[in-house]
Amino acid sequence: MRVYLARHGETTWNLAGRYQGRRESELSPLGVRQASALAGAMDAAAVGRVVSSPLLRCTATAQPTAERRHVPVEIDDRLIEIAHGTWEGRLRDELAANDPDRYRAWRHDPAHVQFEGGESVQDVLDRWRSFAAALAPQTPTLVTTHDAVVRVALVDATGRSLDAFWSVRVENGAYAVFDVVGPRWVLVDECVADHLGALRADVGSQAL
Length: 208
Hints:
The chain is an alpha/beta fold. The protein has a single domain (2-205), classed as Phosphoglycerate mutase-like (Rossmann fold). 37% of the residues lie in helices and 16% in strands. The protein contains seven helices and six strands. Strands 3-2-4-1-5-6 form a six-stranded mixed beta sheet, with helices on both faces. The model has no long low-confidence stretch (mean pLDDT 97).
């Protein structure tokens, strides 16, 4: 069965270059339009189920699809973003200056970073594997989640180590495509963004 794994639309904190983690931030005007474009793509895919992280930026991204497909948005806490701990709410440039060792490690050796008061990438992978094993989709399904969760899912599906965390492509409002056969998640497409057209965000300036 086909599963579409989407990152939420652009948020106001994405625009500001601020780390979000478990904190809430709203979709930007662009993010709202991205959610609508995603809904159009999911309508064409005949999605019959929608599952989301509990955070507002994900449920707001999922809602247009759910409304068009006349299904509820199911919430699963295992899809929540990595807990950035003491980094949450702080600007990327500030952290690069004031926590340079951890920032450098996060950008170059993410598999071995433990955030103070937060999680590691391995923790996110463990949550993802638990979710993926339990989903058992019976209809084409949209899953809306966060950058770190999409990254670990892509790395895991292709048999790579978490050292490859930054090597995969993830964009706001775009989605990866998987075929789920029993326990196996087979990657079909890493990042589909054609539906966004001119609505693609500048992820290079975000605090990821």
